[in-house]
Amino acid sequence: MRVQEPLRYWFLPDHLTGDDSLSRQALRTVKIALAMLLWVPVFIIVYEYVDAPISAAVLGVAGAAVLVVLRSLRWGAPVRAVANAVTGLVCLTLVAISAATGGFDAPAFRWLAVVPLLGILLGGRVSGLVWTAVSLLSGTVFVLIRNHHGKLPSELTQDTLTLVSTCGDLGMISCVAIVTWLFDRSERSAQSMLLQARYAAEAATRAKSSFLANMSHELRTPMNGILGMTNLTLKTPLTRSQRDYLQTVKSSADSLLRIVDDILDFSKVEAGRLTFDQTDFKVADCISEAIQMVASQARSKGLAVSCSIADGVPTIVSGDPFRLRQVLLNLLCNAVKFTEQGRIDVTAETVPSENDAVEIRFRVTDTGVGIPGDKLESIFEAFVQADTSTTRTHGGTGLGLTISAELVELMGGRLQVSSTPGAGSCFEFTATFVRASDPDDSGATREAGRHSPATGVDGHDFHQVSPACDDTLICRNPVDPTVRPRALRRLRVLVADDNPINQRLAEVVLQQAGYDVTLVPNGQEAINRVAAEQFDVLLMDLSMPKVDGLTATSAIRAQESGSVRRLPIVALTANSSREDRDRCTAAGMDGFLVKPLDPAALTEEILRHCPAPAIRD
Ligand code: ADP
User: Which residue(s) pair with 516 in the sheet?
Assistant: First the structure.
């Protein structure tokens, strides 16, 4: 449907139509200038009719000036300057006509009172004050002239003055009425346009949410197959390397499933379709289940996790334990993810409440990296992460806190954070539950176990990369059969990648192709290894902690300067845009491979850079 363009867009320059306050000010200026413009021909006719050429000429010039001023807004002149120009023109025109038609007694003189009003309306307080001073000064001059020298000479007789005055009043009123009607219509069409845009945006959001929900659902179905079959296969007799590969598949599928779950929840949040159960549950059990799910990862990092439930927290409450656990789990996962040493504490205490409901305050405190002050608000927005640098250490979607904040709000509370960078963070929220009629509830102080380092059932299976794979599978070169009679020296390939699964994949693929593989987890280690050892080719990821791939490449090129040897460096990255390719070339890379890894393309690329491998000794 074509939206009718409101009248105001005919006058406003494009750069103003998006800025609400400026465009409103510009619109007001245009309205008043147009009222003046309509007023001008009426008065020219009247003054011509009563034979007052000077006044008619002044009005003609003022009319032309108004047009120029209006056009200047279109040319991009500042709104404030145009507003003052319009006010100034009104003032000058009134003073000039008053002077020509009798000064203090002229009909135009009493319109001088309008000038300060225009000043305030168009330019604001300061401009209003300035134009009040100007019109008061002009008025005072006319009063002084009248008191000291009598009347100013007038081209008009008393009868004509009355006629001009009456026409002026009528003309002014009808012009303002016409302009007001015109702009009211244009405002209404602007509003209907806004309404249409809102309906369209709402429909788009609904479509996006349902697309996300459908996609997440469609993804979950095959994911279940992958996970289920992997788990089944893991229970059968396997070689060590087969078990190792399948564990990698399972761990990747688990991560993917968590992302899909996040997206599904986020789409529900956006569509307002999150649902809540109402069932009796034990608060301590809910907290302990969440802790147990991160226990193994916390343990592997040597982190202590403790939990204490304060006096007065009822043993059993009525609410949605799944949603509460989801929030606690997300906060705990983040705490473990962003803490390298120290501890994580979970506490629960009641908040005094007037009605019968139970309000509980939960806190998850860590001694991790913390969050910079300027990021404390934005981390609750969807897809926002405090650290967005290319050297980012941790993964994630940036959706967890958005979903948690929404869940907490639906549980009648608010999720808040306080943090000291380098010292740790404290996420805190309150949630309201219905008091359950529990005969056992004594309300006594409880310590729900101290986990140091975290102990308990391992809910999530966090994958550990195991050592090198089964040698029986490797030492083949699947690419070029003509190369295979040749006995080649095994080329030495250095792989810099921070993701253990990507490392593992590259390692297996390269070993199967017959290469010697060395793995490093970041750019800094790549620089160090290249300085210390000889490699035939370096495969470099771009986003890595400490030093990213581009910086590492530049540093290696700087190290090489002056020497005849130049190590071929090939980017191995999930960023596939033209700009990324150009950035790699500019940093000194020789090739570019896009993930997911294609084994044939990888070996081909390596052979391109090492065309004549040395004969094995
Ligand atoms: P994700 O963890 O998947 O990136 P979240 O929405 O859970 O997404 O978190 C958003 C960001 O908030 C994280 O990327 C991280 O920068 C910051 N953050 C969250 N929790 C912590 C924490 N306990 N310590 C430090 N930073 C945190």
Answer: 492
Single-letter residue type at 397: T
State which of 22-31, 221-230, 331-340, 388-397 shows the largest mean pLDDT: 331-340
- For residue 76, the number of C-alpha atoms closer than 13 Å in the C-beta half-sphere is 2
pLDDT digits (tens, 9 = 90+) for 323-374: 999 999 999 999 999 999 999 999 999 998 777 789 999 999 999 999 999 8
pLDDT, mean of residues 254-278: 80
Q: Tokens in use for 56?
A: 């008619």
325 CA distance to ligand 1 middle (Å): 17
Q: Which residues of 160-183 are buried (b: 16+ CB within 10 A; e: fewer)?
A: bbebbbebbeebbeebbeebeeeb
Q: Which two tokens stand for residue 288?
A: 């302990």
State pTM to two decimals. 0.54
Reply yes or no on whether the pLDDT at 281 is more than 70.
yes
Task: Output the 3-class SS for 341-389.
Answer: CCEEEEEEEEECCCCCCEEEEEEEEECCCCCCHHHCCHHHCCCCCCCCC
Tokens for 95, please give them: 């003073």
Give the type of residue at 71: R
How does 41-73 read in b/e, with b if 16+ C-beta sit within 10 Å?
Answer: ebbbebbeebebeebbebbbebbebbeebbeeb
Contact status, residue 288 vs residue 448, Cβ threshold 8 Å: yes
326 token code pair: 């989801």
Which of the residue ranges 189-198, 257-266, 444-453, 573-582 would you say has the lowest mean pLDDT? 444-453
Q: Which residues pair with 429 in a beta bridge?
A: 362, 415
Rounded-to-integer distance, Cα 248 and Cα 507, Å: 13
**In angstroms, what is the span from residue 371 Cα to ligand 1's centroid?**
8
Tokens standing for 367?
């001694």
- What's the CA-to-centroid distance between 435 and ligand 1, angstroms? 32
Structure tokens of 153? 């000479």
- Cα of 379 vs centre of ligand 1, distance in Å, is 7
Mutate to test the pocket of ligand 1, among 261, 331, 334 (most ligand atoms within 8 A of CB): 334
Mutate to test the pocket of ligand 1, among 364, 367, 379 (most ligand atoms within 8 A of CB): 379
Question: What does the DSSP assignment read for 547-568?
Answer: S-HHHHHHHHHHHHTTSS----
C-alpha separations of 126 from 121, 122, 140 in Å? 11, 11, 21
**Residue 410: DSSP 8-state:** H
Q: Which DSSP letter does residue 446 get?
A: B
Q: What is d(CA 288, CA 285) in angstroms, rounded to the nearest whole number?
A: 5
Rounded to whole angstroms, the Cα distance separating 327 from 347 reads: 14
**Across-strand partners of 446?**
309
Token pair for residue 378?
Answer: 């934005």
Tokens of 369: 């990296």
Tokens linked to 147: 């008191």
Residue 112 exposed, middle or buried by CB count within 10 Å (0-12, 13-18, 19+): buried
Tell me the CA distances in angstroms from 451 to 278, 306, 333, 343, 391, one per residue in order. Answer: 30, 5, 16, 10, 32
Which protein residue has the closest C-alpha to ligand 1 atom 13?
385
Task: Please tell me the distance between residue 313's alpha carbon and the centre of ligand 1 in angstroms.
Answer: 28
Distance CA 426, CA 260 (A): 27
pLDDT averaged over every residue in the chain: 80
Please indicate whether residue 366, judged by its CB atom, sits closer than 6 Å to ligand 1: yes
Nearest to 375 by CA among 323, 348, 413, 338: 338
